[in-house]
Each structure stands twice: as structure tokens, then as C-alpha cells.
Design a protein that fits this description.
- The protein is α/β, with parallel strands linked by helices and about 130 residues long.
- The protein has one domain: Alpha/Beta hydrolase fold, catalytic domain (Rossmann fold, 3-Layer(aba) Sandwich), CATH 3.40.50.1820.
- Helix content is about 45%, strand content about 10%.
- The protein contains 6 helices and 3 strands, in the order E-H-H-H-H-E-H-E-H.
- It has a 3-stranded parallel β-sheet, sandwiched between helices.
- Strand 2, helix 5 and strand 3 form a beta-alpha-beta unit.
- It is globular, with a radius of gyration of 16 Å.
- The protein starts with 9 loop residues before the first strand and ends with a helix.
């Protein structure tokens, strides 16, 4: 039995989307290196299979992306590359980049994020 789920929209807040990004496998971060030693460096086929960047298609749902420019865990290339990929595919999306934020934020940028998510949900989620 195969379960099919209809996804109306996607929201990613500092989510890694491309594990084949050189910012990961060329990093000296010991946590990244431990993962790549486990799966190979780089284990391209496996990494592509778990990367939304490589799995996105023209029929992907509307997507909202939020990234911080000072994030020590998720390189800003992740958001920039995913936004470019979605544009290439013609997928409706929004990309919000907060240059001075890290891996999450508070204050005005948090309010901005919540407001944008609420609007996106109201736009793309069908309430039955």
C-alpha cells in the first residue's frame, strides 16, 4: 500500500536543502566531516536523494524560504541556491534573507517571519 500525501505549501526556516553543496563537504566542521565519513565524501547519489534541491520539480508546491547570513550551521548558499532552483523550475516561492541573523532570530525579523508565514498559509492552504 502506498500512501499519497497532498502538500499544499512548504515553509523552510534555515533548512538544509542541498547536501551536495561544497560548503558542507569541503567544510572543516567536525560534525559535517563525521557525516561524510559515514556516507562517503561525497556520496553523491545518496546525498542527492535526500536533498530537496535535487528533488524539486516544476510541480513542487509553493515554497517559502527563510535564511540568516550569519548562520553557523546552514550556509547561506542553501537558501540562495534553492531560490534560484525554484525560479528555474517556475515554482512559486518567496525567499527572505536576513543578512545579520544566525540560525534563527528574535525581535522584528521574527515578527516579519511569522507575518509572512501566516500570509502564505492563508494564500495556499485550503481549509475544508
Amino acid at each position: 500500500m502506498m500512501l499519497t500525501i497532498q502538500v499544499d505549501m512548504v515553509c523552510s526556516i534555515v533548512g538544509p536543502v542541498n547536501f551536495t553543496d561544497p560548503a558542507y563537504y569541503e567544510s572543516t566542521n567536525p560534525e559535517y566531516q563525521a557525516i561524510y565519513q559515514l556516507f562517503g565524501n561525497p556520496a553523491v547519489e545518496f546525498l542527492e536523494s535526500v536533498s530537496p534541491f535535487h528533488r524539486a520539480t516544476a510541480s513542487s508546491p509553493p515554497t517559502q524560504l527563510f535564511y540568516g547570513g550569519m548562520d553557523p550551521l546552514v550556509p547561506s548558499s542553501q537558501g540562495n541556491d534553492m531560490a534560484a532552483r525554484l525560479s528555474e523550475l517556475g515554482v512559486t516561492h518567496q525567499f527572505q534573507f536576513y543578512p545579520e541573523e544566525g540560525h534563527g532570530w528574535e525581535g522584528p525579523n521574527q515578527v516579519d517571519t511569522i507575518t509572512k508565514i501566516s500570509t502564505y498559509i492563508e494564500t495556499y492552504i485550503e481549509v475544508e
